[in-house]
Amino acid sequence: MAKFRFIQTPYQIKNLSLKNRVVMPPMCQYSATDGMPNDWHYVHYVSRAVGGVGLIIVEMTNVAPNGRISPNCLGLWNDAQRDAFKRIVDAVHAQGGKIAVQIAHAGRKAQDEPNAVAPSSIHYGALDYEGQNLITPKELTKDEIAEIVQAFQNSVKRAVDAGFDAIELHGAHGYLIHQFYSPKSNTRTDEYGQDKMLFGEQVIKAAKAVMPSEMPLIMRISAQEYGENGFDSDYGVEVAKRFAAAGVDAFDISGGGDGVLCAGKHPEFAAGYQVYLARKVKEATGLPVIAVGMLDDAAVADHVLANGDADLVAVGRGLLRDPYWLLNAQYNQRAADGAAMEFVPQQYVRGYM
How many CA atoms lie within 13 A of 85 on its CB side? Predict the structure, then answer.
């Protein structure tokens, strides 16, 4: 077995010092009531810190009740939610981990919300997965857009006050920021339609205004759409460059989110299938990038880092299956080549001897 030479190395973005290159990406748990994190979230995130993950990114956390994709999604629209998050943040820090939170608004994807909103009054697709008609969202007025930008800023400020180490803005997968910069979902004729990246730029600047200067702002974008008439990766790079100029410090690079997959518009689903997008954005912006897309095999993840395709690797389903994914990957390697174990909590060492 080849020695892992990169996955275990430290990495720094501004004042965020990570002990390794493994990221737990945001993955919705659909387990909150009134947006409040609870004991499930506490155990879920803190156990990954015990497992040695370098950076944990808390699931999509909403700036407003009508921005949730389900009634059981998290929120940061009030101070009680902020205080509940602080308990999780403090516990992750006690285990030597670093933790960020993904701040978001679902826009037209809030299909359980009768007051769903979007840049334009266009629904996400003809039918949902159960064959039901989708909600057609209300087109936002300019005053309402300004209110949402302010809501993003308020939520980011609460996240800073809760002690998070970094902020991620969700601008991918068909969520509101993506809806604005996607020509398919934004057919407005005002400045937000003429300049489709304006809303995202305003949210970025609003977030940076309430963040400490050395705290990193990460942005997740869809660097390519996978549906019919979706934009290509060249357009995705232009989005990244615009958002980098607005103040983004690192990118979390994904794809899709614009509706039903279209043959010939998406890569084949295989290990590392979206890594090419991360490399393209990295080369275009010069900023650190997180790669995603079936990177559950530690050897594949290490190879992505060795190639310079990305600076960090997100392991999603692997960490859902196993909170100790990194410890066990190291253990399996140690069994093969005698390498020393790292990051194992003292209480668990005898299990890895």
Answer: 30
For 58-95, write each residue's pLDDT tens digit.
999 999 999 999 999 999 999 999 999 999 999 999 99
DSSP state of 141: P
119 vs 154: CA distance, rounded Å: 21
Quick check: is 6 in a domain? no
**Closest C-alpha among 77, 70, 100, 42 to residue 252:** 100
> Residue 126: is its pLDDT beyond 60?
no
Tokens of 269: 């689903």
Residue 1 inside a domain? The answer is no
Tell me which residue of 35, 22, 15 sits closest to 296, measured CA to CA: 22
Domain membership of residue 18 (yes or no) is yes
CATH of the domain at 105: 3.20.20.70
- Residue 2 domain-assigned? no
Number of domains making up the chain: 1
The candidate with the shortest Cα–Cα distance to 144, out of 183, 79, 199, is: 199
| Domain range enclosing 180 | 11-352
53 CB neighbour count, 10 Å cutoff: 30
**Amino acid letter, 148:** I
